[in-house]
Amino acid sequence: MSGFPWGAFGVNLAVSAAVALAVMLVTFAVALAKGVHRVVDVAWGLGFTAVAAVTLALSAGHGDDVRRLTVTGLTAVWGLRLAGHIALRGRGHGEDPRYARMLARAPGDPRLYALRTVYLLQGALVWLVSLPVQAAQYLPGPMTGPQWALTALAVAVWLTGFLFETAGDAQLERFKADPEARDRTGARIMDRGLWRYTRHPNYFGDFMVWWGLYLLACGDVAVAAAVLVSPVAMSLLLTRGSGVRLLERQLAGRPGYAAYAARTNAFFPGPPRGGGN
């Protein structure tokens, strides 16, 4: 494919950066008014949705309409679902312990520290990770047969991830709501449904969602190479950053978790080890 409008895409990158920043600044103001910074987790999904929607408007007349609507719709469904889930999960709760610990050791004004290390950082990550969502909307059309096949593959990968994430979250919420729920050893550890095959089905789902969205930008080799950093960055965040590694550290001392970890894959789904049921 040729004819990618790099100039228009560059303008879009500047506007999307401003949009991501605006979402996080508004969220920061809300957090100060409410007295809790956990609201920034809700803004994560909303930020991606806002960037996708603005790009849809700016890319009119440049990209293929089917691809533009597909990538925007998939991003918005994922982002709004995640934002709603996190908002409902945190309703009625105080500050997230992660942010409480961070602010307790903040040098200087904790509000400015939170702005720099949480809100501005997350805004930058929203912009970086969303590069394929933006680039895909500028790929010229109409799509050919191979591009239709690539789009179908991308949607299938996205759908696999979305189902893992939504089902995993729903299964965990049902487990938490049942005070009598236990794993097969009697420990208060979730090892049912998708959690039998991976200790983090929601993070694995995110991984698949963003590689699926990346595939939508792969109709042009140069574009695909330029935005490859995005799914790689998200993968590292999920596995090495604030995802699996941080949560595993928090859960390590919970009774029964070591046994669960010994028989269950950390990230990619697989059958339980040791003949676990």
UniProtKB/TrEMBL annotation:
The chain crosses the membrane at residues 6-32, 39-60, 113-133, 145-164, 211-239. Coiled coil: none annotated. Keywords: Membrane, Transmembrane, Transmembrane helix. Pfam families: DUF1295. InterPro entries: UstE-like (IPR010721). GO terms for cellular component: membrane. This is Uncharacterized protein. It comes from Streptomyces abyssalis. The lineage of its organism: Bacteria, Bacillati, Actinomycetota, Actinomycetes, Kitasatosporales.
